[in-house]
Amino acid sequence: MWWMMNEGGGHYCSKKTDDICGDVCGQESSRLSMSRIRCILRGIDLKTYIFLFVLVPTCIFGIYVHGQKISYFLRPLWESPPKPFHDIPHYYHENVSMETLCKLHGWKIREFPRRVYDAVLFSNEVDILTIRWQELYPYITQFVLLESNSTFTGIPKPMVFAGLRDQFKFVEPRLTYGTIGGRFKKGENPFVEEALQRVALDQLLKIAGISDDDLLIMSDVDEIPSRHTINLLRWCDDIPEVLHLRLKNYLYSFEFLVDNNSWRASVHRYQAGKTRYAHYRQTDEILADAGWHCSFCFRRISEFIFKMKAYSHNDRVRFSHYLNPKRVQKVICKGADLFDMLPEEYTFKEIIGKMGPIPHSFSAVHLPSYLLENADKYKFLLPGNCLRESE
Asked: Hey, which CATH number is domain 86-297, 3.30.70, 3.30.460, 3.40.390, 3.90.550?
C-alpha cells in the first residue's frame, strides 16, 4: 500500500510516493479516490490531452459512419456460410432435340408439356416486367400478378400496373391480376408485409386455376428465367419437385455482372395443400445458368430512389444524402454500391475480392431476345449506357 494509518490514527506516507501526488497524503479516505485521479490527470501533458480529445471523437464518428461496413467485413467471424447447393449441369443448344436435352439431364421426355404458371409480386418494375413476360410468353399458361397500394415498408404507392395495363395487352387473355390493400404499419418489420402478400399470392394462384403437377415459377420480377430453361422443365419428366435456378447476377443493367450466384428463383411441381409461395431456400437442388437477375435495373433515377426507400432492406439508407439524385447517377455509372456497403459474403477472400466497383462488361451475348430486338427502347440496360432519365 502506498499509504497506511500510523499507530496514532494519522496518515502515513510512503517514501516512494511520487512528488506529483504528494499532496494526496493527509486527505480523508473518502476523498482519496478522486484525489488519486487528479494526481494522474496532472501527470498528463498537453499533447496527450489533445491526442485524446481528437482520437476518441474520431473513433466514435468512424464507428457511426462505417459501423455497418465493419460488421459486414467481420461477418466470417460470426456467421458460417450456408450449405452448398447441389448444382445440376444445364445443357442447351437450339439445334439439339428436346428428347436429347432431357436425356442429357438424366430425365425422360413427356408425351405433352406441363402447364406453366408465372407468379410475381409487382411494385414499379415496368420495364423489367415487360422483358420478363416477353421472354417467357411462348411457354406460360397463365401470368399471375399481385399488386398492392402499399410498399413492404408501409409507404403508400399508386397501382402502377393498373394504370399501365394497356401496355400489357399481349398477355391479357392469359393474365390473372389481383390487388391487395396495404396495412400501412410504419415501423413494422417489412418482411411481415412481404410475407402476407406472398400468402395472398397463393390464393390468387388458386383463382388462376393451378392444379397438381403444373409448373409454378416463384421469383421476383427482376429474376428472369430463360425461355429455354422453362421449356426444358415443362417437357422433361422426373425433374425435382422443387428446383432453384442459378441466375447471372447483374446490378443496374446488363453492363455490371456481379457474379453467377443468384439462387432465390425457383420452379415447383405444384401440389395442392403443400406448395407455398416463398422466396427463400427450399431445396439443395439448383439448375446452373438458368437466366438473369437484374437488380435495380430502372430507367429513371426517381425509380431508384423509390425502391431504396420502399423495399424490405430500406434500413440500408442510413443517411439522407444517399438519396441525392446526382449521387445515385454517379454511383450507377461507376458500378458502386448505392448503400455504400461491403459485399455480403461469408469469407474474407470473397469479401476482399468483391470490394470496390463492379468491373464493366461489354458483352451483350445471351441476353433476353426481346431486349436486343428493342435495343433503342431499352438502351439504358445495355453496356455503355449508364445515364438515366431524371423523372
From this structure: 3.90.550
